Amino acid sequence: MIHFKGKVALVTGGSSGMGAATAALLAKGGARVFCAQRGASEHEDIAADFANPEAPKEVIDQVRGRAGALDILINNAGVMREGTVEESSEADWHLQMQVNLTAPFLLLRHAMPLLKQNGGAIVNVGSIEGLGSNPRHPAYGASKAGLHGLTRAVAVDHGPEGVRCNAVAPGWIDTPLNEDFINGMPDPKAFRAEIGGIHPIRRTGAPEEVAELICWLVSDAARFVTGQIWTIDGGRMAQLSLP
What is the residue-level pLDDT of the chain in tens, covering all 243 positions? Predict the structure, then answer.
């Protein structure tokens, strides 16, 4: 097990899916874990709606006031709205940019003084849609591509200050949202087999598998790793379609 004894961690969107799995693994390793989202987690909660541009500062202020430190920041909260550029409203676009890109930027800006105190580590949860695109996801893909770029920029600017910043780019992960999507199909079993079949390892991923990568990246075991986008997709992006 990777140890985080004495560390303070903040996970946004920590009440379910990859965020919950990451928070649980950090806590198991000994970290004091704060989770920021609208719902409740199993850790120290901070109520936050990241569609509100004031939320990031309020969250970091609470962490500072309650813990006095921050060693690990996981920007996991996100939102997706489907629609082509013709179908999407400006409100759809701005919501996804605010939650998926601007909120992480603001969290980083307000957290950086704390992160610099003890050589902090950051992981931004991007997506393979920041590398390629699924149909009808222009704003989501653009926001995740931007988050990947932000990751590299932060690594370059703040590496000399002892702060590391990486991103993970998950593929299809069995989060509650994706499970609900599958269960809404006319034949969920057949759809699950079909979606698994687009991956070379012939299955979709578990939130815990992403959490293990995230926790490695913020651990001392990865102390020479920064500025990287780590694809975790069961080989999906490596596999070409049949001719």
Answer: 689 999 999 999 999 999 999 999 999 999 999 999 999 999 999 999 999 999 999 999 999 999 999 999 999 999 999 999 999 999 999 999 999 999 999 999 999 999 999 999 999 999 999 999 999 999 999 999 999 999 999 999 999 999 999 999 999 999 887 888 889 889 999 999 999 999 999 999 999 999 999 999 999 999 999 999 999 999 999 999 877
Token reading at 174 = 């069995």
Residue 141 Cα distances to 81, 95, 169, 207, 211, angstroms = 11, 13, 11, 20, 22
- Give the type of residue at 109: R
Name residue 80's amino acid.
M
Cβ pair 6, 67 in contact under 8 A: no
Considering the candidates 4, 34, 50, 140, report the single residue annotated as catalytic: 140
- Judge whether 210 and 232 are in contact, CB under 8 Å: yes
Give yes or no: 172 in active site. Answer: no
Which residue has tokens 């979606």?
A: 195
8 A C-beta contact, residue 190 and residue 129:
no
User: Residue ranges of the alpha helices (H) in the chain?
Assistant: 17-28, 55-67, 90-97, 103-117, 138-158, 176-183, 188-197, 207-217
Contact 237, 171 (CB under 8 A): yes
- pTM (predicted TM-score): 0.96
